[in-house]
Design brief:
The complex is a heterotrimer of chains A (about 260), B (about 150) and C (about 600). Chain A is of the alpha+beta class and about 260 residues long. Chain A has nine helices and nine strands. Chain C has 16 helices and 20 strands. The chains are: A alpha+beta (about 260), B mainly alpha (about 150), C alpha/beta (about 600). Chains in contact: A-B, A-C, B-C.
Amino acid sequence: MATPTLEKQPAADTGHLVTVTFRIRRFDPERSADAYWQDFELRIDPKERVLDGLHQIKWEHDGSLTFRRSCAHGICGSDAMRINGKNRLACKVLIKDIADVKDGVGTKPVVIEAMKGMTVLKDLIVDMDPFFQAYRDMMPFLITSGNEPTRERRQSPRDRERFDDTTKCILCAACTSSCPVFWNDGQYFGPAAIVNAHRFIFDSRDEGGEQRLEILNDRDGVWRCRTIFNCTDACPRGIQVTKAIQEVKQALITRRF
Amino acid sequence: MAIDTNGSSPSGYGPDHPAPVIEPPRARTRRTPRTTRTNFEMYGWLFMRVSGILLVVLVITHLMIQLVLDGGVSKVSFAFVAGRWASPFWQAWDLIMLWLAMLHGGLGLRTIINDYAQRDGTRFWLKMLLYTATVFTVLLGTLVIFTFDPNIS
Amino acid sequence: MTTAMQIHKYDTVIVGAGGAGMRAAIEATKRSRTAVLTKLYPTRSHTGAAQGGMAAALANVEDDNWEWHTFDTVKGGDYLVDQDAAEILAKEAIDSVLDLEKMGLPFNRTPEGRIDQRRFGGHSRNHGEAPVRRSCYAADRTGHMILQTLYQNCVKEGVEFFNEFYVLDLLLNDVAGVRSTAGVVAYELATGELHVFQAKAVVFASGGNGKFYRVTSNAHTLTGDGQAAAFRRGLPLEDMEFFQFHPTGIWKMGILLTEGARGEGGILRNKDGERFMEKYAPVMKDLASRDVVSRSIYTEIREGRGCGPEGDHVYLDLTHLPPEQLDAKLPDITEFARTYLGIEPYTDPIPIQPTAHYAMGGIPTNVRGEVLANNTDVVPGLYAAGEVACVSVHGANRLGTNSLLDINVFGRRAGVAAAEYAATAGFVDLPEAPAQFVADEVERMRDATGNERVTEIRKALQDTMDKNAMVFRTEQTLKEALEEITALRSRYRNVSVQDKGRRYNTDLLEALELGNLLELAEVLVFSALARKESRGGHYREDYPNRDDVNFMRHTMAYRETDTEGNESIRLDYKPVVQTRYQPTERKY
């Protein structure tokens, strides 16, 4: 006998499926210079993820629909996109939570487009290089001086807790590309870069905080933040992004006075 | 070997001639910006917060005196202004209010222009207009406060 | 018009930017001109999904030493482990953890400020006496922290990445009668161009191949590209029949719930609420090794004690643990339960089923990371590390936390060895028309007008693998799977893609990935058919016992092509290195 659970295939049991419209902003530079909206009607289990819906379209309707994805459960950060006007990971949003299903039909279309403020290269794929450049500009690595200890560096649980929130970042760019300041000025480092600077500035083992603060004190740094809270709302990891930025501002002010 | 089996689209774009992509404004470059090592941005940010708080006090008190207390707005006349500006205290009050309001408002508008002006040219000229207007208003206002002549006919 | 092509020259080329690839890159970049080719942005790799921890006998919280760790690894792998490699793994584990800490990894800490450790499946004190705290962890996102820390250090070292470059072929050329590494061919996703990377040394670190199962914790991108490229070039694949099924995947979805959940005190229960693991593993209970727990779960289900209306899952019960402990130690998996199942783990048990998790087998290497061309000879200049490789430190079943260890220990070793080799060796001439094979394949696929769809073939493959080659296997089910795969492979030749464009053609990429999966699934099933015994992750119901007389040896599978172009698989066997521990019956 084979592996048991899989013998009972839920054969033609499709009673739980609902009809949902996916409205997707398409762009293919090999076909046209203009982006356009395209609707797809799907029969799908409402407990499925938006990513499953995109896969259904790609695999069964239109193979040219292009998007990034990998882990499909919210830890790789590949599939950040704008879903119903908000930046979300497609693998962390369930259809039932956004399609407003009534009597087996989604009353609202699921509107999907690429993240804002970044160059769209094809459909939902954007150019991530400037985003990673801003991250690299933060010197996102432990900076220390003196001889290395033979064993581990000591750190109290309280010191470890101090920067725990910002270690969760998966660099999906949902926060940065939800920031109105960033939309209009791509040279603003953006929330993600600041979050990753925060992770080191507040790490008791790190000695490069001063250099990072210096960078963030400048024109494209934290002072551009206007506490709009879009980033905190967008973060799929639940990081208190705006709070982290405020903490960096506070560190800069207390450093000066 | 033909790749563009989907035929050349009516737009004339294809795998060999892709359409241009739309870049966002002011993309980050490969070069890390050099830090200026000054605190100008921080002082700017602090100025906006501190001046905001001061302006709340200054403006509300100003409005109360001008519009509500002692018979309200009907009392305001040339003589009333002349009487107020006879005192250096009120001169200073109005001067601070003028400067803070204009700088606070000007910086705020500059941010809005930065956010909403799409093209570099538009942004530059709108800011020039803003700076000109701000400087003009501040200078004119300051001039009036210090050279006000109550005996003018 | 042919596909455009560029040629690059690097001392060392690393394929893959997960844990093993980036660990190797950090070493190789210091010593040689290095390029890292990765089909994803580095921080997207599936190392980030690892949750539980990384084992090392630091003895920070209780008595421990690396010899016990070696024993646990050997026993966990059902004695199919090469013991010299396991010894290296356990010994170098300590420095690897300390190295990561010095690179900045934020481990959880003890009150004294040392790296905290917790219990994990199969890790025991003094050769199996009792569970031991050996797993160093950072909440339940240790893999995420490792991936981020390694990427951060790649940024620090200035590692040169080629992001979204998909390696499709390995180039070998004869040097004085020995097949040596000349480079790789990569497909640039953004432009559809082909790039030939000529290199003195190539390190494969391209990860696993679990996507031929449907219920799997593997990412969509884990399609065995490295294994398939080597296999197609006539290199062997070792122990492919051994695949690990993780006991606790979210029911139907396969998303991983860490073993750390049981390490923190979580309990598996059947529909009667019984703690059934007490029956199967009286000492280690819920923390027995993964193959044992997975089989126990399915035994419960088959004997009618599964939960739910279909009786097709069991529960992972965390409700007796204080919410503060769950928040501090297991925040991510409690969030998974909330997001994907709508379940509150504070008060309700989580439905789980075993999920395809990890390939123990892969490209055979020695302890320096050098790839073997047969039982004894290495391929000059070719290295492999991580899940793509088979050293073999995992034998027939990998212990939890040993994979994060594997990528760090052997990633580092492969990086050092590759760069040192590149420092002395010269470039091997590229074969004539180096990109021709890939160019033909890509263009054939893009221009094809066949009526077969990638989706349907992939689904059929996953269905047959789940049904016939998962936790329980028999001669009959494996034969059925093999027939099905052979049929699917011939259907695959008529596959066509819809996207005919060149930029970001992920449709084309998925078709190529399916080709790799089919290739490797066939090897798995073929090797499993020949192994007429049960050992670790490979369980044959028709041969339920371990057979050390006939099968205490590694399987080596080779692709053979006869003069008419017909492909077949040839199996050979390689002895297991045994040093200190004699095989005994494996009980937990």
